[in-house]
Write a structure and sequence with these properties.
Elements lengths: L2 H21 L8 H21 L10 H26 L1
Helix pairs in contact: 1-2, 1-3, 2-3
């Protein structure tokens, strides 16, 4: 992966992480760094899933890929928030 690919993955991960966090109701008790990490992982896994189902490269905006990535980010953030709030009790 080239430097531009890594930079774009980080930028997309930030966007995906923030959108995934906005989808969830209530307040999440995780920091921005973990949100970005979850977003990057969700973006990479979501892209792989979208390409596996042959919807990763369409004409125009890849809405299905974005929805998969945002859904994965929301799941990851919710799971991380739940595990961290359980540890505080």
């Amino acid at each position: 992966m080239e430097v531009s690919g890594i930079i774009s993955a980080i930028i997309i991960g930030v966007i995906i992480g923030i959108l995934g966090r906005l989808v969830l109701p209530g307040r999440q008790h995780i920091g921005i760094v973990l949100t970005v990490v979850v977003g990057i992982v969700a973006a990479l896994i979501g892209s792989a899933i979208a390409h596996a189902f042959d919807v990763g490269d369409t004409n125009g905006v890849d809405w299905i890929e974005w929805l998969i990535q945002i859904g994965l980010a929301a799941l990851g953030i919710a799971a991380l928030d739940r595990s961290r709030s359980g540890a505080r009790r």
